[in-house]
């Protein structure tokens, strides 16, 4: 490995520290380094790498020309809502007659189903485009085919044993050479981008990267490769002109006058969008993103804020009750809990929090009328859909991503499912979704030399953690003094000095002028300051 690293450093010409950090992220050629540091929209792969993209574009263009009615069928999470907003806005701007449908989590369930056929027929729809769903909707696809309604599927989930009969199917897992880390909104973007490229107006796709950024981060997709480029561009664009809905959403999230980070999206934006689908109806959030005036946007945003507060209360209750249950029976290889009083809209968040706390898979279910609707989350090291595929005979439905699944089963089958999972997962060694970043030991001169490159490392997130550094025997060159979010102190080593920031007053006694200290820190390259970590 050291030999390979040396070759990479020599070929790339990068400072040693920058090269080491890139190499840890799996970047091993000068071209990969260029894309990571300087990649932009011009480096995105062609959407026509999808083998059925031409067919999809031609059918949509025919529908626009003939004034056919196109239905965009989405999903109720953030990825699905942003995918739907992107496709509705994008096609409508080209003169398409569009309708949308996002199934209600509670009354209709996930994805495209035969039950939607009546509504589709009654509105004269001749083309259905799914976004962030559809790859397992074989029955729905057959029903549309029987009625002579064309179907284009755009999805990013793992296919099942049977591929639906659609006019065109766009899913990275069915392709060679397509980035499999794309979110549902990323695949939807590729379709819209292909349409615009064929019309020789590809640059008009760029503003839609704002939706791609939000959906990709919310769906916890890796910020590597194309995702990294699209999220970076999308976040930058949010600092400029936005639609009425997005601008109001940024405002109520406290993000109107600041550079937006993936953490901002994950902690502040996404929960507000998600709250609609979790507590009532995702169409509320979609209407916000499609709002045609600031007044309309503010009215809807007020409702979203109320739903988000309700979501927070319900989530806290479910997690609290789950922890109480685990006090009585918390052993075993996994967490497997159910209740008749839990709102199934918050089960995914509850399962995630439990899985992270106990570092084991967590499955939580809400039971009603003999049916158990559940969510499963797991640390790294396993594919939950693959495990569940071995017990599909006990499930009504299931699907998702390697570490996050939704599933439906009859109540009487829950004990058998639990026994199977306990046995299947017994030998796994669990890791966290993101292994903690091991501090890179550096001296201050290395940091100074690499500062310009380190400014290019964000956005940070899954797959691209924020670099963590350590330095030994740094000299305390000043007394600590108040800073607007805590304290600051000047540290020096080998003639290079940096201002270091920290929040905890408990660290004050560590920094005595003239003494030397060992520190662990992140870097704020824009300000050229060290952000100290408590050791």
Q: How would the blueprint of this fold be written?
A:
Blueprint: H1 2-12, H2 16-24, H3 30-38, H4 53-65, E1 69-73, H5 78-92, E2 97-101, H6 117-122, E3 125-131, H7 138-146, E4 150-154, E5 168-170, H8 184-198, H9 209-218, H10 225-238, H11 244-252, H12 262-279, H13 283-289, H14 294-328, E6 335-339, H15 347-358, E7 362-368, E8 371-377, H16 384-389, E9 397-401, E10 404-410, H17 414-424, E11 440-441, H18 444-454, E12 469-476, E13 481-483, E14 486-493, E15 496-502, E16 516-524, E17 529-532
Parallel strand pairs: 1-2, 1-3, 3-4, 4-5, 6-7, 11-12, 15-17
Antiparallel strand pairs: 7-8, 8-10, 9-10, 12-14, 12-16, 13-14, 14-15, 16-17
Helix pairs in contact: 1-2, 4-8, 5-8, 5-9, 5-13, 8-9, 9-10, 9-12, 11-14, 12-13, 12-14, 13-14, 14-15
Provide an overview of this structure.
By secondary structure, this protein is an alpha/beta fold. 41% of the residues lie in helices and 18% in strands. The protein has helices spanning 2-12, 16-24, 30-38, 53-65, 78-92, 117-122, 138-146, 184-198, 209-218, 225-238, 244-252, 262-279, 283-289, 294-328, 347-358, 384-389, 414-424, 444-454; strands spanning 69-73, 97-101, 125-131, 150-154, 168-170, 335-339, 362-368, 371-377, 397-401, 404-410, 440-441, 469-476, 481-483, 486-493, 496-502, 516-524, 529-532. A 5-stranded parallel β-sheet has the order 2-1-3-4-5, sandwiched between helices. The chain has a 5-stranded mixed β-sheet with strand order 6-7-8-10-9. It has a 5-stranded mixed β-barrel with strand order 12-14-15-17-16. Strand 9 and strand 10 form a beta hairpin. Helix 5 packs parallel to helix 8 and helix 5 packs antiparallel against helix 9 (209-218). The longest helix has 35 residues, at 294-328. It is globular and about 80 Å long. The chain starts with a helix and ends with a strand. The model has no long low-confidence stretch (mean pLDDT 92).
């Amino acid at each position: 490995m050291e030999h390979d690293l040396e070759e990479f450093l020599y070929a790339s010409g990068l400072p040693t520290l920058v090269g080491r950090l890139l190499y840890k992220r799996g970047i091993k050629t000068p071209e990969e380094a260029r894309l990571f540091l300087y990649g932009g929209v011009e480096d995105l792969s062609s959407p026509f790498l999808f083998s059925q993209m031409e067919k999809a574009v031609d059918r949509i263009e025919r529908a626009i020309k003939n004034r056919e009615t196109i239905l965009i069928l989405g999903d109720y999470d953030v990825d699905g809502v942003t995918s739907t907003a992107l496709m509705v806005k994008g096609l409508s701007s080209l003169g398409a007659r569009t309708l949308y449908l996002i199934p209600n989590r509670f009354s209709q369930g996930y994805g495209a189903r035969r039950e939607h056929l009546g509504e589709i027929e009654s509105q004269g729809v001749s083309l259905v485009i799914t976004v962030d769903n559809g790859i397992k909707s074989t029955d729905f696809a057959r029903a549309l085919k029987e009625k002579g309604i064309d179907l284009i599927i755009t999805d990013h989930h793992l296919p099942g044993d049977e591929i639906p009969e659609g006019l065109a199917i766009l899913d990275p897992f069915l392709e060679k050479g397509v980035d499999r880390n794309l979110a549902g909104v990323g695949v939807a973007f590729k379709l819209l981008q292909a349409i615009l490229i064929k019309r020789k107006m590809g640059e008009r796709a760029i503003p839609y990267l704002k939706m791609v950024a939000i959906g990709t981060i919310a769906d916890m997709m890796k910020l590597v490769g194309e995702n990294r480029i699209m999220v970076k561009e999308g976040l930058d664009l949010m600092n400029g002109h936005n639609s009425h809905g997005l601008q109001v959403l940024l405002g109520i999230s406290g993000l109107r006058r600041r550079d937006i980070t993936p953490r901002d999206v994950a902690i502040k934006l996404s929960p507000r969008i998600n709250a609609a689908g979790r507590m009532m109806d995702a169409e509320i959030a979609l209407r916000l993103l499609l709002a045609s005036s600031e007044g309309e946007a503010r009215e809807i945003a007020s409702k979203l804020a109320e739903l988000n507060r309700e979501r927070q209360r319900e989530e806290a209750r479910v997690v609290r009750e789950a922890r109480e249950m685990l006090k009585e029976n918390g052993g075993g290889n996994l967490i497997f809990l159910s209740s008749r009083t839990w709102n199934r809209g918050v089960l995914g968040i509850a399962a995630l929090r439990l899985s992270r706390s106990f570092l084991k898979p967590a499955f939580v279910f809400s039971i009603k009328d003999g049916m158990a609707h559940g969510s499963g989350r797991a640390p790294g090291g396993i594919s939950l859909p693959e495990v569940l595929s071995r017990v599909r005979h006990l499930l009504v439905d299931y699907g998702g991503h390697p570490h996050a699944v939704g599933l439906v089963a009859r109540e009487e089958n829950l004990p058998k499912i639990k026994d199977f999972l306990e046995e299947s997962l017994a030998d796994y060694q669990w890791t966290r979704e993101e292994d903690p970043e091991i501090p890179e030991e550096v001296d201050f001169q290395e940091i100074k030399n690499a500062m310009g490159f380190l400014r290019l490392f964000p956005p940070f997130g899954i797959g691209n953690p924020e670099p963590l550094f350590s330095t030994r025997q740094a000299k305390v060159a000043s007394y600590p003094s108040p800073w607007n979010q805590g304290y600051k102190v000047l540290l020096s080593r080998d003639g290079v000095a940096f201002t270091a920031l920290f929040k905890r007053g408990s660290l004050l006694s560590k920094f005595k002028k003239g003494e030397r200290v060992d520190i662990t820190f992140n870097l704020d390259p824009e300000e050229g300051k060290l952000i100290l970590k408590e050791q």
